[in-house]
Amino acid sequence: MNNTLTQSLPTDDSTQRQQRLAGIAQQLLERARSAGASQCEVTCNEDAGLAVNVRMGDVETVEATRDRGVGITVYFGQRKGSASSADLREASLAATVAQACAIAKHTEADPASGLADAALMAQTLREFDSWHPAAFDADRAIDLALACEAAGRAVDVRIGNSDGASVNANASISVYANSHGFLGTERSTSYSAGCALIAGEGEAMQRDGWFSVALAQDDLETPEAIGRKAAQRTLQRLDPRPLPTGQVPVLFCAEMARSLIGSFIGAVSGGALYRRASFLLDSAGTRVFPDWFAIEEDPFVLRGFRSASFDGEGVATRKSMLVDAGIVQRYVLGSYSARKLGLATTANAGGVHNLQVKANAGDLAAQIQAMGRGLLVTELMGQGVNAITGDYSRGAAGFWVENGVLAYPVDGITIAGNLKTMFAAIETVGNDVDVRSHVRTGSILIGHMTVAGTG
């Protein structure tokens, strides 16, 4: 980002603050041991942030936050109790441990509870270039948000309104420790800027936007570029037409394609599986996607949004295939869900790390040309996904494609199918990866879906 969000940075004291949190974590572990806990784990964190919102050239909100807290979980055999506090004074820490112990003593034993196995704890801890702090400056953040909105509004006279622009900056440090002797520290920063604009008048108004997010502020797109892209996307949506009901190919742009991968991850996650609430029960080792399709998890990406040496239980993370040759290689498990299923943890306590979906096609324009005729989806609405059956029905907007080019915008439609069928019907994944997420995928073409329109 050419226009910096912040001024010169004072001395970075994050290491000292991590050491302080580590000392508090060790103190809590010792208190829990003294109280008779057989196992214990502690999380400590400090967060600071700045959020600015502007609209139509005026400042709407400026919010600075600074939070800290500790959470402790104790186990008495297989009875579990948890408590947390934002007060780090001695008396409060002691009371937090006492509360967690009291809760544990009044709960039923759960055979699956307890820390992850000690042998699985991470031995090598490293950082992944995720710490890029700077002194937060509200005045500069306001200037950047105003510049973003102004650049978008200046593109075309048809953009007569705005849903506003925002700039955010956050910094977080954390410590996880447990009674196996494991202690790990993490720190990360994040910056974002975005703008949403409105074009047209009355019932013909259309809204769209754009945003940029990065771990280092210099990796953000410029506010002018964000504003112009928000304007272009908004103008493209003017004068939409309806579509008749029918079966057509559907191309999800990269932003929307992420939600398809998210539905798959939810279906192969431990909580859904041991509750028997997933449409992909017993899917490990079976083909769910076409034979060329693959998803790899890589926790070790420099500047990755979800890079980590250890998961939420201290288990060492590892690079591995989640889907290979279309076959589900494993589930997404922490130690609790793994025990419930009679399996081993996959180092995913707290969720997946960086996912990369294999591409087998060119960029979005190439996929549109190859599709020839069908629907390009650029917006999804509603939550019409049944996690148990896989039935899928969501409101959508986008563009009708004819002869390999965008013909006209469409909205007021519903796209429907079943996720199992949809996954099997994926024809291409583009190389136009949307890098603004830990789920890195290009646009995804599904060979046939039901589009419910006006006729």
From TrEMBL:
The Metalloprotease TldD/E central domain, residue ranges: 132-238
UniProt xrefs under Pfam families: PmbA_TldD_1st, PmbA_TldD_2nd, PmbA_TldD_3rd
Keyword Protease belongs to the record: yes
Keyword Ion transport: no
Assigned protein family: Belongs to the peptidase U62 family.
Metalloprotease TldD/E N-terminal domain: residues covered: 41-104
Organism: Thermomonas beijingensis
Name of this chain's protein: Metalloprotease PmbA
Gene that produces this protein: pmbA
EC number: 3.4.24.-
GO MF annotations, alphabetized: metallopeptidase activity
Domain Metalloprotease TldD/E C-terminal: 245-453
Alphabetized UniProt keyword annotations: Hydrolase, Metalloprotease, Protease
Name of the top EC class for this enzyme: hydrolase
